[in-house]
């Protein structure tokens, strides 16, 4: 039952992140702009850390789970099932977001999308593949370093969620014009699966680059910076 609670928490947490984050872009993007969208993503993670962190660690991101696996903080079975739960949560969130926004008379999936990530013509700022790939590696690396540091034994207790949420908002402030910001394969998977087309064909970038960035951060933390961390 404890394991089921962990997997369910990861599913729900990822659902909240994707529904609120991409929903802010699709529903309210014209009103709140890039800054508002960045805060929506960051605040989603911040509140979910406190909601489910004590149950599952609140990874809600396959890149985080893979980094924790690489650093020995989670077992392979839990890691695999976390990732499955995260992906399911993301897809459900995108399906329900589509159900909501389809009720608006001016909405068109092909035109308005679902907050999917992209490069080239699909990039908000027109950035090419290489720019997007490099940015996703760097931004995920930064994000994971914050997570490792904020959950270390030397960090002030009870503040990890604030640091992690604010770091995700910070990352989105830079990354949204480049790719829409992924740093999370599940976040990219949900909208891409539901929207299909180009979003699905470009999805590999937003799986591979965040995983690379996360693994680099795990190795840097483990071999260069770790002084003792909590289990995440």
Structural overview:
This protein is mostly helical and 232 residues long. The chain has helices at residues 2-56, 62-70, 76-101, 109-112, 129-150, 160-179, 185-195, 198-201, 203-225. It is globular.
Going by helix content, strand content and strand pairing, the class is mainly alpha
- N- and C-termini, Cα separation: 19 Å
Q: What does the average pLDDT come to? A: 95
Rounded to an integer in angstroms, the radius of gyration calculated over CA atoms is 17 Å
What distinguishing features does this structure have?
single chain, 232 residues, mainly alpha, 9 helices, 0% strand
Short description:
The chain has helices at 2-56, 62-70, 76-101, 109-112, 129-150, 160-179, 185-195, 198-201, 203-225. With 232 residues, the chain is mainly α.
């Amino acid at each position: 039952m404890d394991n089921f609670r962990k997997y369910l928490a990861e599913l729900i947490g990822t659902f909240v992140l994707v529904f609120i984050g991409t929903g802010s872009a699709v529903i309210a993007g014209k009103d709140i702009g890039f800054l508002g969208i960045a805060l929506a993503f960051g605040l989603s993670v911040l509140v979910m850390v406190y909601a489910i962190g004590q149950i599952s660690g609140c990874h809600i991101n396959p890149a985080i789970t893979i980094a924790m696996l690489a650093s020995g903080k989670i077992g392979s079975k839990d890691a695999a099932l976390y990732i499955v739960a995260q992906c399911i949560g993301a897809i459900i969130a995108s399906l329900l977001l589509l159900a909501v926004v389809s009720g608006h008379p001016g909405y068109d999936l092909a035109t308005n999308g679902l907050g999917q990530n992209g490069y080239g013509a699909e990039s908000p700022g027109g950035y090419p593949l290489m720019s997007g790939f490099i940015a996703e590696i760097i931004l995920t690396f930064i994000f994971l370093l914050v997570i490792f540091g904020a959950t270390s034994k030397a960090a002030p207790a009870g503040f990890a969620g604030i640091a992690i949420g604010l770091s995700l908002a910070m990352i989105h402030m830079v990354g949204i014009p480049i790719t829409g910001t992924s740093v999370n394969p599940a976040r990219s998977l949900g909208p891409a699966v539901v929207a299909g087309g180009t979003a699905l064909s470009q999805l590999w970038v937003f799986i591979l680059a965040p995983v690379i960035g996360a693994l680099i951060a795990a190795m840097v933390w483990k071999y260069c910076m770790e002084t003792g961390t909590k289990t995440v």
